[in-house]
Design a protein that fits this description.
Layout: E1 17-21, E2 25-32, E3 41-42, E4 47-53, E5 56-61, E6 74-77, E7 83-86, E8 91-96, E9 102-109
Antiparallel strand pairs: 1-2, 2-9, 3-8, 4-7, 4-9, 5-6, 5-8
Length: 110
């Protein structure tokens, strides 16, 4: 008998390194080499993603979790200097599908 359920992915940090945190914001740095992926993670709070360098990311839903904002992977072309507002609640991971290293700053709004 086969089991078709997917075990929830173990959740990790939302980015590479926490740069600053207080009771209002947490500021994270994200660095991904081409082909590298983040840990599966939950965005408990809304955040602003600021692209510093890179060209393309794929965002995948984290296995075993329901997402209120998307249920399929999608690609995102990055643009240095662009800031995107992202709502809270997504279980996801990001993969650098571009040809160059990705660097971004995430400002998590508490």
């Amino acid at each position: 008998m086969s089991d078709d359920t997917t075990e929830p992915a173990e959740l990790g940090a939302i980015a590479t390194r926490l740069l600053y945190e207080d009771d209002k914001v947490a500021i994270w740095e994200q660095r991904l080499a081409p082909g590298e992926a983040t840990d599966a993670h939950l965005h408990e709070n809304a955040y602003i993603l600021i692209d510093v360098e890179g060209d393309k990311l794929r965002v995948d839903p984290a296995d075993g979790y329901e997402n209120p904002h998307f249920d399929e992977s999608f690609e995102l072309y990055t643009k240095p200097g662009r800031a995107l507002e992202v709502p809270a609640g997504s279980y996801e991971l990001a993969v650098n599908t571009g040809a160059s290293a990705y660097h971004g700053i995430l400002v998590e709004l508490k």
